Amino acid sequence: MELEFLGTGAGSPARYRNVTSIALKLLDERNAVWLFDVGEGTQQQILRTTIRPRKVEKIFITHLHGDHIFGLPGFLSSRSFQGGDQPLTIYGPKGIRDYVQTSLRVSDTRLTYTLKFVELTENTKVFEDDTFRVDCQTLDHRIASFGYRVVEKDHTGELLVAKLQAAGVKPGPEYGKIKAGQDVTLADGTVVPSSDFIGPAQKGRIVTILGDTRRTANAYTLAADADVLVHESTFGQADGRIAHNYYHSTSTQAAEVAKKAHVKQLLLTHISARYVGKAAHELQSEARQVFPHTRVMKDFDQIPIPLQKN
Amino acid sequence: MELEFLGTGAGSPARYRNVTSIALKLLDERNAVWLFDVGEGTQQQILRTTIRPRKVEKIFITHLHGDHIFGLPGFLSSRSFQGGDQPLTIYGPKGIRDYVQTSLRVSDTRLTYTLKFVELTENTKVFEDDTFRVDCQTLDHRIASFGYRVVEKDHTGELLVAKLQAAGVKPGPEYGKIKAGQDVTLADGTVVPSSDFIGPAQKGRIVTILGDTRRTANAYTLAADADVLVHESTFGQADGRIAHNYYHSTSTQAAEVAKKAHVKQLLLTHISARYVGKAAHELQSEARQVFPHTRVMKDFDQIPIPLQKN
Ligand SMILES: [Zn+2]
Ligand SMILES: [Zn+2]
């Protein structure tokens, strides 16, 4: 599990920061990549990475501002052009379907794969299967904006083979039952309780990715105990009033969320083009005063998210 | 007057060729830039040039395929974001208005300038003022596709001041009248015929830019005697049948148009990603067999279009 930042700018593309897109690479976990926002030029950024468009299984859109969605029709077309044939689902605020379908219709684009839409209007469970669950909550932006909380389910503990053998349980179908959580009765009547022969569960990881937002209570809920919180930082500490007026956050406000939510790591993105070089570094320093484990992201930064040791 | 190629690829962006966009820089002529097609990432390409979005006065769309239009909403937003306040007109096939307006509405983008649309359905005069005239004609592509013929009006000849003075006409309001083409009668009754005192007119330039197309008759009409013909060359000579099936042209077909239309220079663009390095050079060699003044364009190539000596 790894995050790769495809665009870390705000508003308009700049020479060294493209507009927003974040890839959550789940190659080991499900041989898939999830994208969060697809600003214009995301497919060009992807050309400079090892990400293969056909592996993109889900796209989560935080909000419909152009710097977060204008790369979507092009990405979808190229995924098709490159022979992608697996279904793809787009989750996002109401309107995303209209935008994408109009773009594909007007341009006479016929996709080689099934495209599904899930439009969001309120706090809800977005997706769940055996290995992941994603929830969204509303944030506070000029238009509807969502934060996503991606929770990996706990990995079941390993089968304690040595211990089983010591207890006289020979390899065979019983091992599968025990691994699946069933108690087993041996030929001699001995009951082998499954729970005694399975190691501790490995805690799943939590990744929280927020859309553009002012300081808001739902951010804390979404970020609670996350391994990684990705938070916008359009402005610096000194521009709190501007941030408020434009429905954005400062570096320090992001750090306060990280601190109160007890996250392990804060990654700042959506950096205004006014902060270049030293000034971007300054955003990081400000945030670290509040929450030390903070980094300002650059385009193409890759952040591994390791499983925590039990 | 100069052409700058912002994207020279076909279909999907590639590492070294972005999708289609061409700038016709008319800085000396009207302090403006015209764009022909705006594929995704055009605004990012513009960041690497000296072109200022606010100077873009007109955008001509050849056809609605995604690789020619998906950069439009982002470009329009950024032009606004950067304080552009002059009106902008988009000319293109029916559907362009729906696409742009849906994109701007869904993304809640409010432009700081007036955006006008002129939708085209048939061969017509697209635009005319004192210095330029633009006509379009339909081409032969899978969807409606247009070629544009940009004709600069002839520059009036200079006032022959020395000759006027020799003829005894003193500087004064008469000079303005003669320059404007009016004959003047002096106090002594002498008639001064305007045409005797104005140098030869300077022929205006002709630039023809075609959208994606199969070989088709209108291409010749549009390109007749042009200073520059910009023609797609999606395929090489050997792939004539594929080109036909996909409604595209080969390098050699483009060269045949250039030759029969007596253009001065042929610029090939919309090069498939399969032709890299030597293979792209091969397209140029093939075309030169038919029409020597041919060049295959690369992204950021700049081609000056000088006035011809009378
Ligand atoms: Zn934004
Ligand atoms: Zn094309």
Automatic annotation (TrEMBL), chains A, B:
Q: Does the keyword Metal-binding apply?
A: yes
Report the enzyme's class at the first EC level.
Answer: hydrolase
What InterPro entries does the record tag this protein with?
Answer: Metallo-B-lactamas, RibonucZ/Hydroxyglut_hydro, RNase_Z/BN
Described purpose of this protein according to its UniProt entry = Zinc phosphodiesterase, which displays some tRNA 3'-processing endonuclease activity. Probably involved in tRNA maturation, by removing a 3'-trailer from precursor tRNA.
Alphabetical UniProt keywords: Endonuclease, Hydrolase, Metal-binding, Nuclease, tRNA processing, Zinc
Any one GO MF term held by the record is: 3'-tRNA processing endoribonuclease activity
Q: Which residues bind Zn(2+) 2?
A: D67, H68, D212, H270
Co-factor note (free text)? Binds 2 Zn(2+) ions.
Domain named Metallo-beta-lactamase is located at 18-270
The record's annotation in SUPFAM superfamilies points to: Metallo-hydrolase/oxidoreductase
Source organism per entry reads Loigolactobacillus jiayinensis
Read off the HAMAP family from this record.
RNase_Z_BN (MF_01818)
Which residues participate in Zn(2+) 1 binding? H63, H65, H141, D212
Swiss-Prot/TrEMBL cofactor(s): Zn(2+)
**Reactions it catalyzes:** Endonucleolytic cleavage of RNA, removing extra 3' nucleotides from tRNA precursor, generating 3' termini of tRNAs. A 3'-hydroxy group is left at the tRNA terminus and a 5'-phosphoryl group is left at the trailer molecule
Q: Name the gene.
A: rnz
* Positions of the catalytic residues: D67
This chain belongs to which protein, by name? Ribonuclease Z
Enzyme Commission number(s) from the entry: 3.1.26.11
Q: Which family does it belong to?
A: Belongs to the RNase Z family.
What quaternary structure, including any partners, is listed in this protein's UniProt entry?
Homodimer.
